[in-house]
Amino acid sequence: MRVLGIETSCDETGVAVYDTAAGLRAHALYSQVALHAEYGGVVPELASRDHVRKLLPLIRQTLAEAGLTIDDLDGVAYTAGPGLIGALLVGAGVARALAWAREIPAIGVHHMEGHLLAPLLEDDPPQPPFVALLVSGGHTQLVAVEGIGDYRLLGESLDDAAGEAFDKTAKLMGLPYPGGPELAKLAGQGRPDVYTFARPMTDRPGLDFSFSGLKTQVLLAWQKSDRSAQTRADIARGFEEAVVDTLAIKCQRALEQTGHRTLIVAGGVGANRRLREKLDALARRRGLRVCFPRPAFCTDNGAMIAFAGALRLAAGQREAATVAVQPRWDM
Ligand code: KG4
Ligand code: ZN
């Protein structure tokens, strides 16, 4: 089964073709980062308009790279939420229209399920059961995955998501948009242990997170500092270490609690080098397996949506031909 995947939940237009027999055939991404940079954040209306401009050319490009035409497709998967409503409607509308015209099924995919399954696109994919750490700009969740589609929430952030904490902290230190990756880059030049911030909620039982207090700690440190380039890097290093440490402590706890031996990490913050190093070290120490998507599939992309949709369509799942999206949606 060849499935076209469409991702338009936020500021990236992602398209891919996944073949249940041959694997990922092609994928393409158009990032709107430059469009939103001057506003310091994603402007929803501009995002929708740009998806309208870019989606059809990107579908043509992806099909050409796969050596396929629209007639070769057996299904279409699109991100149905959570995300920006206007942006979601662009992908949903195009997917539904395409499926209607070709008389093939279309299916709406949960954006976070897409992220969660992204590590399975790599070679030697892990099989459930496993624990998934989902760390993006909108979510920080630990999920017990007993099977595909069988997800149990173990814990989540009570306030800011990890990616959001990176972005907000970057902004208050005057780093350019998009802040998360910039802050991580800067942290690479910082010295360890010059600044030490709290590891929130690690001193009590449970698997929930809270990251909003951390940015206030950074703000106070930043205001009191000499604001030199080295100090900024040292603070960034301290902040990154606190977030990464906190995530690692809770991952270890989730693995102990479930008894699962495999951890998968997905979502934009999964691209963070220190997080990957720390979780690799944890896995080595404990004889566990940890799996990450390639960095390009940590952040938003069409491949994860094509893959998640293909699994559902191949399992016989079908939906009524209505265009329904959900800006807020529990998995
Ligand atoms: O999964 P994603 O592309 O979009 C959402 O669904 O939110 O994640 C984007 C988030 C942003 O908050 C961004 O700052 C963060 O992931 N991010 C990073 C890194 N790369 C992206 N955070 C820390 N270190 C990185 N290298
Ligand atoms: Zn995402």
Secondary structure class reads alpha/beta
| Order of helical and strand elements | EEEHHEHEHEEEHHHHEHEHH
Number of extended strands: 10
Radius of gyration, CA atoms, in whole angstroms: 20 Å
Q: Strand order within the widest sheet? A: 3-2-1-4-5
Bound molecules: 5'-O-[(R)-(carboxyoxy)(hydroxy)phosphoryl]adenosine, zinc ion
Task: Measure the end-to-end span.
Answer: 25 Å
Mean pLDDT: 97
Number of helices: 11
- Overall spatial form: globular
Portion of residues in beta strands equals 15-25%
Unreliably modeled segments: none
EC number: 2.3.1.234
Cofactor: Fe(2+)
InterPro entries: ATPase_NBD, Gcp-like_dom, KAE1/TsaD, TsaD
Protein name: tRNA N6-adenosine threonylcarbamoyltransferase
SSE topology sketch:
Blueprint: E1 2-7, E2 12-19, E3 23-31, H1 33-37, H2 44-66, E4 75-81, H3 85-102, E5 106-110, H4 111-117, E6 130-135, E7 140-147, E8 150-156, H5 162-172, H6 179-187, H7 212-224, H8 229-258, E9 262-266, H9 273-286, E10 289-291, H10 295-298, H11 302-314
Parallel strand pairs: 1-4, 4-5, 6-9, 9-10
Antiparallel strand pairs: 1-2, 2-3, 6-7, 7-8
Helix pairs in contact: 2-3, 4-11, 5-6, 5-7, 5-8, 6-8, 7-8, 8-9
Bound molecules: 5'-O-[(R)-(carboxyoxy)(hydroxy)phosphoryl]adenosine (KG4) and zinc ion.
Give a summary of the structure in a few sentences.
This protein has 331 residues and is an alpha/beta fold. Helix content is 44%, strand content 19%.
